[in-house]
Design a protein that fits this description.
This is DUF11 domain-containing protein. Pfam families: DUF11 (PF01345). It comes from Thermococcus celericrescens. It is a single chain. The chain is mainly beta and 458 residues long. It has 3 domains: 2-161, Immunoglobulins (Immunoglobulin-like, Sandwich), CATH 2.60.40; 165-292, Sandwich (Immunoglobulin-like), CATH 2.60.40.740; 298-446, ntegrin, alpha v. Chain A, domain 4 (Immunoglobulin-like, Sandwich), CATH 2.60.40. The chain contains no helices and 39 strands. It is elongated.
């Protein structure tokens, strides 16, 4: 059924007539005699078409975007007059996650010449919104030389269809395993198409810690490409309305390049990234497993005691400043740490700067200063504690090694990293006999390697 709305305005006198009307043209007020009637389509002066009561019916899938023809207007006013049209759509009935735009809503009106026809465009973007039908009323305001009119046009109907869905589930395999232990898992990707028949593309990535044992799709075809150590799976499947398909993937932990069984350190590992439904930008949940540390996982730490600056060789009774640093990397499970280190009795702690956590200090009866560093580290997180020390001078009559900082210790674990010592020598004696080399100040780029542990930074 096609409904036709038109307006015929007959002016009884040649003088100016000002017309004001409602959107349905039921009643009018004017300063001169006005005659209004509905005329057939071929005689209309201002008109637009409605089909089954709607200016446009739009069907769109969720998580998609669509351009559409919103409304077509025709100008057949008397005296070959131009008419300027502005549309005012009402989006208040649309749900959150839906954005619609109809031309001229921003105030940029459109002028139609005599006998011109123009179709106003629209755009709709739908996010993750459930299926449903929504009505968008549209008012049209028209002005021309000698009159104006406000008309309620037929509304626009928006139909949101349920788009395809993608899910991932773990069929077999542990969610927690010890490090350096072989394991395998099978997971399933399921795709459902509630809408029209179509071909879908699904992509997934298997990280480098795993090898693929088998891939078994219920329909469609797949390819596997390798980028670095990771495997990229692409699955294409054609589904009719209401059809579903699944693909089972079996993976297992592999040996790393050093010949050690993954996982080589504890923590969380993603079995595979979220499977993506490419055409719709929809991604499923990923599957994560946890590797527990062998033995005492709480002590799987890398600790380094670093000399940053200050004279390694110091003449007696000479003031000097020093900068040392503790570096801690947690290679085990997330945990709280308490790190203790002592500043030598010949030195005063002047400042401390941790990258995380809190620090407390205490001067001991033997003159040393105990530094206690409390912090929380997740798996593979690194933290640093910068310590600044000063001496007013150390008196000695012979070569002497004086402790600057002790080996750091972690409560409940062992002590790691080398203690640091300053060589103090009598004036005029350095370089004679079996004395050490000439004193030097070590810059950051010239830090000596730590003799007791691997490098933790970087």
């Amino acid at each position: 059924m096609r409904g036709i709305i038109a307006v015929l305005i007959t002016i009884a006198l040649a003088s100016l007539v000002i017309v004001s009307s409602s959107g349905t043209f039921v009643s009018f007020e004017a300063t001169r005699e006005v005659k209004v009637q509905v005329v057939p389509h071929e005689q209309e002066y201002l008109g637009f078409d409605c089909e089954d009561g709607y200016a446009a019916v739009i069907e769109v899938n969720k998580n998609s975007e669509l351009d559409f023809d919103a409304l077509t207007i025709r100008n057949y006013l008397n005296d070959r007059k131009d008419v300027t049209i502005t549309l005012y759509p009402d989006y208040s009935g649309l749900p959150a996650g839906v954005t619609m735009f109809i031309e001229t809503e921003d105030g940029a009106s459109r002028t139609l010449a005599s006998e011109e026809e123009y179709t106003f465009f629209g755009n709709v973007t739908v996010g993750d919104v459930g299926p449903g039908e929504y009505i968008v009323p549209v008012d049209m305001y028209a002005t021309w030389n000698g009159g104006d009119a406000s008309i309620s046009t037929c509304p626009i109907k928006l139909i949101i269809k349920g788009g395809p869905t993608i899910e991932k589930e773990l069929l077999s395999g542990p969610l927690e395993i010890p490090t350096h232990t072989y394991a395998e898992w099978t997971f399933r990707i399921t795709v459902t198409n509630p809408g029209e028949e179509q071909t879908l593309t699904i992509k997934d990535v298997i990280p480098g810690e795993f090898e693929i044992g088998s891939i078994d799709p219920s329909a469609g075809t797949y390819t596997v490409t390798q980028t670095g150590a990771a495997h990229h799976i692409t699955w294409e499947v054609h589904l009719g309305a209401g059809e579903s398909a699944h693909m089972n993937v079996t993976i297992y932990t592999k040996l790393n390049p050093a010949g050690k069984q993954e996982f080589t350190s504890c923590g969380d590992y993603i079995l595979n990234e979220g499977a993506e439904l490419v055409e719709y930008g929809i991604t499923s949940e990923s599957i994560t497993v946890h590797a527990t540390c062998e033995g005492d996982g709480d002590c799987d730490l890398c600790i380094m005691n670093r000399w940053i600056s200050g004279a390694r060789h110091l003449p007696r009774d000479t003031p000097a400043n020093y900068h040392t640093r503790i570096v801690v990397k947690n290679r085990g499970d997330e945990r709280d740490l308490v790190v203790t280190q002592y500043i030598g009795s010949q030195f005063t702690l002047t400042n401390y700067i941790p990258t995380r956590g809190t620090v407390s200090t205490e001067v001991m009866p033997n003159g040393e200063t105990r530094v206690t560093w409390t912090l929380h580290l997740a798996h593979n997180e690194v933290a640093k504690l910068n310590l600044y020390e000063h001496t007013d001078g150390i008196h000695t009559n012979s070569h002497k090694y004086v402790m600057l900082v002790s080996t750091p210790c972690v409560a409940g674990c062992e002590c790691h990293g080398c203690a640091k010592y300053v060589h103090v020598y009598p004036c005029g004696c350095h370089g004679s006999g079996d004395g050490p080399e000439v004193p030097d100040v070590y810059e950051v780029a010239e830090i000596e390697s730590d003799c007791c542990t691997e490098a933790c930074e970087g």
